[in-house]
Design a protein that fits this description.
alpha/beta; five-stranded mixed β-sheet; 13 helices; 10 strands; globular; disordered N terminus
Amino acid sequence: MVLMLLLWAVTASSERLVFTTAWTAQAQFAGYYVAQEKGFFSKLGLDVVIQHPSLTSSAFQRLQTDQCDAANFSLMSAIDFISQGIPLVNIFQESMNSSNILVSRWCMNPIEMKGKKVAIFNSDPNYLLMAMSRREKLDYEWVPFTSGINVFLSGAVDATMVVSYNEYYELLQAGFQMPEEYLYRFSEHEYNIQENGIYVKRDYFLTHQNTISKFVMACRRGWEWAAAHPDEALEIVMKYVNQNHIQTNRALQKLMLKEVLRLQIDRDSKMREFRVREDMVKLASQLMFESGLIKRQVTYKEVVGMWNVE
């Protein structure tokens, strides 16, 4: 009875935070699952609810309609939203490098495939690919698709965008040969831009500083633990995968976790920093503005909530 009362008291005093990941349950979010399962959130007095989006309700849409307090999406998406006057603040950055790869279907260099059909996700605009296409004057014809690699494998398109931690491995598992000369790795050119981070609305950022600090601390600890214990982290990931009835396999999730952890290492410091880089915000904003994807450039201070800093 005493134990039950103590548990009730802890729960009653916990600060609730609802967090939406960028996509369905997978190893891309291992650090957050670890923080939940290992009690890193609860030990700091947080009652964190991890939810996943759907094809009809994205992470941003849930944040915008107050279905969650924090949401996971790309830096370039955030820049687009902020440029439209939607006040967002990055509180945690899980990616330090671009995972984007453009894969050719017909043994051609993607950068030489002017006017060809390229498959892109219709649920999340690939600002980086669109900006690169316009900058390099490639004039690709966009073919939107929902998910998977079947559109590409069927030969319906000439190239497709993949990420190095997911569809790239799916293509390998499907037996598709991908010589390096037929791949365009954005991180190896002038387009290495950070990807997913966690964002909150500006008013939430201003009124929940203590909650945010605890949440960020636990997220960081979760990712660091996952990096130090990848096999155990994979077991936790598979628990969430199975609970959410996701069609995948352990081999793919293991590869995904390894690659996601690699992408977290900053190229300069060789460390996991979990921060937005000012130079990458500047590059992303410039590329998007010059290619007409946004009407004004967004500053680093806007992205990290430093509006009053001169």
